[in-house]
């Protein structure tokens, strides 16, 4: 159950949330994985790395034991990242396949991305015949399938592999922690500045930079908000805000993820994969 549907620490947000209005459509289509709405940064992170970083407890170095959503959220991030890098896309809509969840994921380019998880997924998509939908790929990559012949598509040790990438980028470190019955490898945050920058970017996107129209939002920021919600780590993003600002931020994020993906995905310059992933999580 995600942050927006289950919160024990905060009271329910008010009913007078700001309503969505139609604005001029954004003609800018993000093609670079590093597009950051003008923010300059030295460290380039994938969407999966950003989601995991948001989910990690800074000092403890692990995600909440109660979070059963982040594994699927990370797989959804892989699909969006591949789409935004121009490697995959959704098949064009037809009379029989108009819905996002009915359309198959197609290969656009099999050129390596330089990221092991992305390239492994790309090989699976290239080798799969017949092609599969977004929802099916999230299930396959997570290992949620009863078909023994499909277990080969499961991506294993995803969190650990992403954490190692973040260690190599100087954001996390590696430690061993004893939990009485077992030892666990943990990855405490060492570069708190980078995580604070990421948190502030998302907070600003629903507060100071709120445009009330997803088509005018930076596509990677939109994708990260959707994935943070689907991975149940959005609470971590807004927890440092005052109660009033928390309510505003959560209301606006709630309005965003409760939009109809089928409608938003058809709008000009929309990144279909973002809305397809959201539709898949809404259905699951």
TrEMBL record:
Q: Name one GO biological process term.
A: retrograde vesicle-mediated transport, Golgi to endoplasmic reticulum
Q: Which Gene3D superfamilies match?
A: yeast vps74-n-term truncation variant domain like
* Lineage top rank: taxon: Eukaryota
Membrane topology recorded in Swiss-Prot or TrEMBL:
Peripheral membrane protein
Is Nucleus among this UniProt entry's keywords?
A: no
- Region of interest (Disordered), ranges: 1-41
Question: Which UniProt keywords are given for this protein, alphabetically ordered?
Answer: Golgi apparatus, Lipid-binding, Membrane
Q: GO cellular-component terms in the record?
A: cytosol; Golgi cisterna membrane; Golgi membrane; trans-Golgi network
Q: State a single Gene Ontology molecular function.
A: phosphatidylinositol-4-phosphate binding
Q: Where in the cell is it found?
A: Golgi apparatus, Golgi stack membrane; Golgi apparatus, trans-Golgi network membrane
Tagged with keyword Membrane:
yes
Extent of Basic and acidic residues compositional bias: 10-41
The family note in this entry says: Belongs to the GOLPH3/VPS74 family.
Official protein name in the record: GLP3L protein
Name of the gene encoding the protein in the UniProt record: Golph3l
